[in-house]
## 1
Amino acid sequence: METDRSAGAEGPALAEEIAEYYGRDGEDGRLRSGAGRLELWRTQDVLRRLLPPAPARVLDVGGGSGVHAQWLAADGYAVELVDPVPLHVERAARLPGVTARHGDARALEAPDASMDVVLLLGPLYHLPEREDRVRALTEARRVLRPGGLVVAATINRYVPLYDNLSTGLYFEAERRPQIEAAVGDGRMRPTGGPKSLFTTAYFHEPDEVPAEFSAAGLTPHGQYGVEGAAWLMGGVRDWLDDPSRRELVLRALRRTESVPSLLGVGGHLLTAGARPR
């Protein structure tokens, strides 16, 4: 029998270094400007094709400051956001149509079978232990109604290599060990100080994610590359600034988003699944 975690349940603690990283308040701006808009708009593009019609109930787990919750609410969805970073919750709570609360993906307070959709667009790649990722997905299944949709974002395994080759940081000898270690076992270990590239994270191989869904009792039914190869192309910022070119970029990426051989090329991958009826 599944447990109903009522309000007030105390979830696991967020790792200190992750809390510090997101406490800098850089994530909201990253997705709303520059090349980060490609991740935002492509995630939006995929979700708008997968989600049931509004006003379905959406639980945005690890939803940050509400970048996705904002447009979901504007589209008419009933959106509840959960995030472990107090600053994020404070900002998201100001958004029209969004209810925001503090919480952890591994111990949700929502009642059993209370949601039509659960989004995990950030939590899985900050849980380096598979047991914790499966626990988060199991919680998503618990709060979903039978037949409900779950969509999870993961970061692809070779992102540290591609990204830092693109920026040139890979050529700095003191940074290469952190990059190569992450590519080797998928674990980003922060080194502390200004030379650290990211906070604690796990980078998936694409085929790992459906297996984690299945271990949590979810039925995976699709994977969608978010940025494809476009994020590594030098002109992407300019293309996104031009509405006509932006639409062509999105259309091109849509054509190849689920080609198996290309799933690991982009920065992020969306995996969709359902709670069995």
## 2
Amino acid sequence: MNALKYGLLLALWLPGSAWALCSVVTTTPVAFGSVSSIALRTTSQSSSTLNAGLSCTGSLLTLLSANDHFYGTVTSTQSGLLGPTGDVISYTLYANNSTSYPMTRGVAYDFARNGIIDALGLLGGSTPKTVPLYLGTTIGSNVAAGVYTETLSIFWNWNYCSGIGIGSICLGRDINSGTTTLTVNLTVANDCTITAPNISFGSAPVISAFTAVSGQTINLACTKGSAYTVGLSDGQQAVSVGGRRRMISGSNYLAYDIFKSAGTTRWGSVGTARRASTDAEVNPGNGLGTGSQVFNYNAKIYTDQTTPPAGTYLDSVVLDVGF
């Protein structure tokens, strides 16, 4: 009689049994990398970590019931990624690689629901697996350049059947909790949007008939708080001596130049020939991010040259912004 009872006990515990062990582990930081201020403002940036601090091994997917849970609660002393000047970049955390599962700070999110744990295969097999998290920045952030960081606190709390016997009888539960931290960082790089219309001198039969082009503007919308300079190259056909810019048609040249504001100071690309953001005619100072700074200029064809043969004369000038 005793041997029979012993045999039934073995049959109950051994076939089909599987055990799970979950634990809180050190996380893998989230790094968005370097993003231009314009891209950050206009497009949601995404990143993720494959390890948000909860690691599990073993068990069976079929063990998850309505009473089982894997809660993750994210909190922070900040409201987003904090930068060197106090600007904040907002972002959303997601429980899987889809915007359909957003997490709210301070509210427990159950990873056992919506099939997330199943999809991860967190409880299947014998190799430890960790819970990932996904992040997406909020469009519209107008911030200064620099490194932005936040340290999140994640409280993990779980309760589920960790072993099963014949007839899907639960042989034990894994109930535990723990807290870990997750660092998130993003670097904002300086950038500008530039509006620079072409210059057209029109047509004339002789050099003396060309009129100066005035009232021309270059508009720049550069990273919030950025101090920068704007340079104009000498073009593709510049004279090495005297520094005049030239347009070309075939083998013939037509000398011209571009000058700062409404004056006669040549706008160049080196040293004091450049223009500082503080020199803008509209909104002088550091960059505004979402607002434009306007630089006026004028251009003229030099009249102390011989009229070249008729033709269409062209040149290409590069505008560069230095931070």
## 3
Amino acid sequence: MLEVIDVQRRYRSGRGTGPLTLEVAAGEVLGVVGPNGAGKTTLFGALCGADDFQTGTVRLDGRELGRRLPAEACGFLPEQSRLFPQLTARQACRFEAAMRVLDLDDTALEEQLDRFGCADFRDTEVRHLSQGMTRRLGIACAFLGTPRVVVLDEPLNGLDVEGVLLFRRALADYLDSGGIALMSSHILSVLDEVCERMVLLKDGLVAATVDVREGGAERAYLEIFGH
């Protein structure tokens, strides 16, 4: 289980997130949504170490981890690609493995590229990839090494039908193995399909936590935000 307890990251403007508390069980996807400025990006970035929380603690499977997840335990797909444009797809995977201190050989990296439909452009520089190709590569990097937790910010952006199907299969396999996921999407029907619960953020705080197993994501959103 992932426990995020009384965490906060606020900026001088007052924007940001927290204090808030979340729990995500093994094999679960927790949906995290809210309007622009609700604090979702800050929450995800701080959890994955892009900008640590100022207060609170993170606990994973009962172990205290401080104010962020360790790199080796967390796969992160931000909404905006963080892949270096001058690297090839193959090099981008290798760099991700190095940054997360993953002991993966070239065969494992090649298999990951194949699994996410990146094999045909493995030697192409990121700057020459389409939006959909770049997104596929970002997803491949996020799931690299089967991390304990994956944080997925708008994972379907730019994906074609094949890319969406690859992602859905990979997520299902990951959850079947006991993985833990947090996921945002502006396509609320997607959250209905893959989540049991959804957290609604407003002004950086948890406005509501709702059960969405029976198609309640859009209804809950409208009840909280009114439009």
## 4
Amino acid sequence: MSSQTTTKAKQSAFKPAKARGSANSWTVGRTIGQIVLVISALTIFIPVVWVFFASFKDKSEFYGSPWTLPKGLHWQNFVDAFVDANLGQYFGTSVFVTALALVLSLIIALPCAYVMARFDFPGKKILKIAIQGGLFINVNYIVVPIFLMLVDADKLLYEIFPDGFFVNNPVMLAIVYAATSLPFTVFLLQDFFASIPKDFEEAALIDGASQFTIMTRIFFPMAMPAISMSMLFNFLSYWNDYIISMTLMTGDNRTIQVGLLNLMQTQKAATNYGRLYAGMVIVMVPVLIFYAIVQKKLLQTSTMGGLK
């Protein structure tokens, strides 16, 4: 009896010590993770805030300490960047191209992903492998073949469009953006559609809903988190692109990224850094606004559409 009592006492004393050790290690790991996240956030937040304040500085203020706050709000930097540096025109081109590319990619990717996820048909495996293979193709590596194809197409239509139709056309640039982002968009939405239980689909079929109604009224609302995520990634890809837009667009139809590079080269030579940082802020603001709009959808649960 005494040996059994001693053994139980040792076991009861060992378990709380082991639990305390696990709790302490979990607390230490969580603290380290929070410190790493804070440092990572500061490395992003501090440069953004610095660029924002620098955009309001006068030209003479850049000769002092770079960490001083602006003496006033020098809005003329934004006016000069938007008007004199033609960033306003480039900005409008980028907004049009990005919006059109997002619409085209969703119009094509949503039905394709739904069919790939919910139906079986001949050649599905081959098509699925082709879509997955497209994820590993960097569009920057094929921009030259795309450009040559568009140039050859313009040669065929030279008598109808002597100034060209495919090259230096914002609509064609949006189509190229949408086409090159389809593998990622379809792959992301397909996995999300495949994870939705069949109970929603069967219940809608019993109520007499068509496949089109099921797709648009049930699956699309339920897939809003995945749709929002794909829109966010595609928006960043379209808006921040430089190589494709520089290759396919020339003259006044340049996008904001190409225009910003030209502004950087010009203002560095003129040492007018206030106008340069104002151009950077103009480029960053749409990204922040779009993320603020989309981030609420990213947190929605996948069953919201089914409950509706």
